[in-house]
Amino acid sequence: MKQRLMVAAVGSALVALTSQVWADGSDAFKLRGFGTVGVVHSSTDLADYRTGLNQPNGAGYSHKYDFGVDSKLGLQADMKANDILSGTIQVISERRYDKTFKPTLEWANAKIQATSDLAFHAGRMALPVYMVSDYRKVGYANPWVRPPTEVYFQVPFSHLDGADAVYRLNTGDVSTTFQAYGGRTKNKIPTSAGMNESEGRRTLGLNVTSEIGSLTLRAGYVRTRFTYQGPATNTFFNSYRALANGVDKLAAGAAQVAAGAQSAGQQPLPAPILTALSNTATSAAAAAADATATAQSVRSIVERYEADNVPASFVGFGALYDPGGWFIQAEYTKRTNDSLVADTTAWYLSGGVRVGKFTPYATYSRIKTDSELTSNGASPISAPAISNLPAIPQLAALQAGIDQVNGGVPQINQSLGLLNGGLNVLLFAGSTAQRNITLGVRWDVMKNMDVKMQWDQLKIDNKGAGYTLNNNQVGFDPGKKINLFSLAVDFVF
Which residues form the signal peptide (predicted)? Predict the structure, then answer.
């Protein structure tokens, strides 16, 4: 709610600023736009290729030729009240989590230019974790149809509600920009098990970018408290919690049996019965201790893998050398977090040559999973069954307790086995390892329009789920290479 209120407040201020600018009749109001009309075809019809985690479908299974993967339309209003105060509003229409193209407020921020080298922004702004974060959705500003998804898929957010401070330091031929930012962001991610929500709270980041002639170098780090939840994952971890409570009750029952057998052993009973009671007390105490350890193990699984306000970080390094006639660009990124969401490392290397109005280019990009894809899960109850007692009326109640504990252990272990199996399914679903080879050409047909043709060959490693794929169907072979053919027209106005 605070997040919405802050964005609404900044938005209202910008609207007021717009009115003032219009009232002044100045040219300090600029309305600009950008867009892409693109189509993608995939060589497989057993999975969908998409370019964002919030896209519910894509090219392949859902659409033989998909016009919604890359197509978008954006409008941006830049307002300047004076040399100090200005603002920007950007609205983008693109495929959303709900399969619509309903326009989304991507930016709404106010800027204070405190000095010629120091500026502050507040409101909704681009989340600056990548080298081309500010214009990643402006196809005309990029040499490719889309930024390499192996890198740009890792962070499921594109904007941040918060503030930043930007300071530029010029030293000789080197211009270095420092950007410190903080805030909060969230997004909806459709999955086959329902709509999930991801959120980053208490986000703090720092970027340093240096420009030395044609060379640009960038380093960035951001940390946040990350949450990724949905109906299926909530049910899954709640089942673990319910099982832990059930194991607690079983451990308490075993402890009661142990105490009862010890108490009964104090009575003047025949020696064989006393021996049986002693054995029962010993085995029941062992069962109680083992069940207690299992309950702790179950809870540790929830703490280890549930993505609920867990620490997460992202680090990125980038370099671009663009003397004009050609370019070479690379980024290396690393994502870590304390949950079942996979830790990843990704990078790409891309280059192109400008020949007249044509720019042929090539890119190699890769992502790999750093965290484990399997887990032993929570430990089952492994203690032997509690020893039975002689069938005499005086011990009938105690024997009933023994039967209840001994009968409950297999049921708990069976449920635990199913949950542990489900955990491994979730972990393996996070397998992100894949590589992509891209060849394409950009044709600048007009000063504000280009046409791009691009071929991608996608290869999923380790028979994984495929990071940029969803809606995988029965028979889908992740080890088979997937060819993607894209045609896009980018324009700005």
Answer: 1-23
Worst-scoring range by mean pLDDT, 19-23, 184-188, 290-294? 19-23
Domain with 368 in it: what CATH number? 2.40.160
Name the pTM for this structure: 0.88
**C-alpha angle 149-151-156 in degrees, rounded to nearest 5:** 80
Residue 409 lies in a domain: no
pLDDT digits (tens, 9 = 90+) for 305-330: 999 999 999 999 999 999 999 999 99
- The secondary structure element, H or E, covering residue 266 is none
Is 44 a domain residue? yes
- DSSP element (H, E) containing 178: strand 174-191
Asked if 378 and 416 count as a contact pair (C-beta separation under 8 A), the reply is yes
Domain annotation covers residue 11: no
H-only helix segments in 217-326 = 231-264, 271-305
